[in-house]
Amino acid sequence: MAMEFLDANRDGSDKDTLYMLSGAALILFGAGLILSNPQVRRYLGQLGVGNLVGSAFPDIDRYLKLRNM
Length: 69
Description:
Elements: H1 2-35, H2 38-47, H3 49-68
C-alpha cells in the first residue's frame, strides 16, 4: 500500500515542484529586467522607496514581537 502511494505521488510532485521553481525564477528574472532600466531606477529614486522601506521596519518589528507572544 505504501509503495503504491509513493509511486502515485512521484510522477506529479516532481513536475509540480519544477513548475513552481521555474515560475519563481521567471518572476525574479522579470523583476531584474525591469529594475535594470535606468528610467525605472530614476523614477523609484524620486519616489524615495528606500525611505519607505526604512520606515516600515519598526512596524514589522512590532508585528513580529506581538506574534511571538
